[in-house]
Automatic annotation (TrEMBL):
Cell location: Cell inner membrane
Major location category of this protein: membrane
Keyword Glycosyltransferase: yes
SUPFAM superfamilies on file: Nucleotide-diphospho-sugar transferases
Family membership: Belongs to the glycosyltransferase 2 family. OpgH subfamily.
Name of the molecule in the record: Glucans biosynthesis glucosyltransferase H
Organism the protein comes from: Salinimonas profundi
Alphabetically ordered keywords of this record: Cell inner membrane, Cell membrane, Glycosyltransferase, Membrane, Transferase, Transmembrane, Transmembrane helix
Length: 646
């Protein structure tokens, strides 16, 4: 009796991560997604069927199946997230959400906070890193953490600036003396994977877990301490991923992305957590990882063959989470969004350039679906991650096939007597009701999740967005901008997918993180082919099939006005004006987290010392090799015999 009671009490502890009915979650999603996709496909088939299915229509139908499956999965993920959030049910345990309770229980093990950087803006990484350090120093468990900046910077001037600013940082934070470490690799072998591997092999054995930060990450001390506590409390968990929320955006586009993330992410992440359960994905930062299993199971090999499927594993984070789960360790996504932040590119060009890198990394995952021992959920992560970009070129192909079919029908005389001995003509049949049902059903798949996200925020979080009216204004503008921007991103993603498939390599350089107004010259240079295509496409359809032209108008409008959209949405003046008007307001702007206050206050006053600083000292090493995994063999068992010192 007492054992049962203790187990029940243990599960009520907010630090405890566990799932109920885990095996049935994917079955539930299957029973929701497949009938929805089948119904949508059948309705499209019924529109085509009465008039003799052509090759172009068959092509549209085949491609549309994949799109409907993709849309249905996203749709039901959002619906489930909406229901669970509305009823305040935890997506993992399926019980009422427990309010976090304050606990004075100290951490028992040591942890590291690491920030890998590569040719980044010195001011931003140092200010953000210092904010995280000071946040942790303000907690009762500060003595359990060491702090590492792991530099792969190749630019000599930036490397010099990093050393100078690090020396100043050590002088400012005297209470962390002996626990602040800066390491710069002479050769950045393996990019970020090699950077983190080098840390693990040299110093990982000294720590239980590592909190991984990106160059633009900021996390509160409360959130980082919470991650460490959850990791210690759950012995079978190797990864806990937070939801990094965009902040510090001033341009219209940056604020649009930031607002959309704050509005929809809690609901979408809840739905995602429902079906992925203990096989959560890793997004590369703002997460804590248990070092022992990471070292034992996440040494990544080079993939045989040529790009895009061969070579170094680019989007390593998905693969590392999959390998941890393959070895029997649990990986979780926690869906409360407080205290975990990142920044996003402030204009559409820089945003698209970042996506270009992710396109190649995610498409490469299709070649890794055959890794032996992967869980079904992780295979779905690989598949959906790639399809997030491939879907654009599929949609583009469907639209082009539909246009070609409509033009052929408009320029050829109909044959009412398909058979030689036919007595009665085959009159064209237009199933107008079925067309309308298909149209509205597709619109529901696309936009109902957004409407539910706005409704949920109105019910539960309207104060976070400046009140009901401000939320309504922001949500309405976000919906309109999403429609306008979608064709531009569809064109870019289609181009990126094609370039990856024909073997063009991508450069993984530092991202543009600070805002900039895109010059008209650049805006036109990056959109000239898209605009030309929109003009030709629109002119041909307007001439031959005016009805189709009206249907395509939302797509053609975004493509035609690509340059002014990119230029105007990159404006900080426009973005800040919207903020003053109560459009795109988020909670962190009127109830700022202490970690963000530190960044805001320190950014203007940051300066380099101008004195060439010596190479900082590093802690003593406890070298432990990180074995490279063999994807063709059975996974190593949970709790490998890899010795890790404590």
């Amino acid at each position: 009796m007492s054992t049962s009671h203790n187990k029940a009490a243990d599960r009520k502890n907010p630090n405890r991560l566990f799932t109920r009915a885990r095996r049935f979650r994917l079955i539930i999603m299957l029973l929701l997604v497949l009938p929805t996709a089948a119904l949508a496909t059948y309705s499209l088939f019924e529109i085509f069927r009465p008039n003799q299915l052509t090759a172009l229509e068959a092509g549209q139908l085949i491609l549309a199946v994949t799109l409907f499956v993709w849309l249905s999965m996203a749709f039901w993920t959002a619906i489930i997230g909406f229901v669970l959030k509305l009823l305040r049910i935890d997506p993992l345990s399926l019980r009422r959400e427990l309010k976090p309770v304050a606990t004075d229980a100290p951490l028992k093990k040591r942890h590291a906070i690491i920030m890998p950087v590569y040719n980044e803006d010195t001011r931003r990484i140092m200010v953000g890193f210092e904010a995280c350090v000071r946040e942790m120093l303000a907690t009762p468990d500060a003595d359990k953490f060491d702090f590492y900046m792991l530099s792969d910077t190749r630019d000599a001037e930036l490397a010099k600036a990093e050393r100078e600013s690090w020396q100043a940082l050590e002088k400012r934070i005297t209470e962390a003396r002996g626990r602040l470490f800066y390491r710069r690799r002479e050769k950045n072998i393996g990019r970020k994977v090699g950077n983190v591997t080098d840390f693990c092999e040299r110093w990982g054995a000294q720590y239980e877990g590592m909190i991984v930060l990106d160059a633009d990450s900021v996390m509160s001390g409360t959130r980082m301490r919470d991650l460490a506590r959850r990791l210690e409390f759950n012995d079978d968990v190797a990864l806990i991923q937070t939801i990094p929320m965009p902040v510090r955006q001033h341009s219209f586009f940056g604020r649009f992305v930031q607002f959309a993330a704050h509005l929809y992410s809690p609901m979408l992440a809840t739905g995602l957590s429902f079906w992925q359960t203990d096989s959560a994905n890793y997004w590369g930062h703002n997460a804590i990882i248990r070092i022992e299993p990471f070292m034992a199971h996440c040494g990544l090999p080079q993939v045989p063959g040529r790009a895009p499927f061969g070579g170094d594993i680019l989007s390593h984070d998905f693969v590392e989470a999959a390998l941890l789960r393959r070895a029997g360790w649990q990986c979780y996504l926690i869906t409360d969004t407080d205290g975990s932040y990142e920044e996003v590119p402030a204009n559409m060009i820089d945003y698209a350039i970042r996506d270009r890198r992710w396109v190649q990394g995610n498409i490469q995952h299709l070649g890794l679906l055959s890794i032996r021992g992967l869980k079904t959920t992780n295979r779905l992560h690989f598949l959906f991650g790639a399809f997030a970009y491939i879907s654009s070129i599929i949609l583009f192909a469907v639209l082009m096939l539909g246009t070609a079919d409509a033009i052929i029908r408009a320029t050829t005389l109909p044959d009412f007597f398909a058979s030689r001995y036919q007595l009665f003509p085959d009159w064209p049949i237009a199933k107008e009701k079925m067309m309308l049902w298909t149209l509205w059903g597709t619109i529901a798949l696309l936009f109902l999740p957004k409407i539910l996200g706005i409704l949920l925020a109105m019910i539960q979080r309207r104060k976070d967005f400046g009140g009901l009216f401000a939320l309504f204004k922001g949500g309405t503008v976000e919906l309109c901008m999403a429609v306008l921007i979608a064709p531009v991103m569809m064109f870019y993603h289609s181009y990126f997918v094609l370039s990856v498939l024909i073997g063009h390599k991508v450069r993984w350089d530092a991202q543009a993180r600070e805002g900039r107004m895109v010059p008209w010259k650049d805006a036109f240079a990056y959109t000239r082919w898209m605009t030309l295509l929109a003009i030709i496409w629109g002119a041909v359809t307007a001439w031959y099939t005016p009805t189709l032209f009206l249907w395509l108008l939302p797509v053609l409008t975004g493509m035609f006005f690509g340059a002014p959209i990119i230029r105007l949405t990159s404006s900080e003046t426009f973005g800040l004006t919207c903020r003053r008007l109560g459009i795109f307001v988020i909670a962190e702007e009127h109830n700022e987290n202490s970690s963000l206050v530190r960044v805001r206050q320190d950014m203007p006053s940051f300066s380099l010392s101008g004195i060439d600083a010596p190479v900082p000292a590093l802690p003593a090493e406890r070298h432990q090799p990180m074995p490279v995994q063999d994807f063709k063999k059975k996974p190593l068992p949970m709790r490998s015999a890899l010795p890790v010192a404590r």
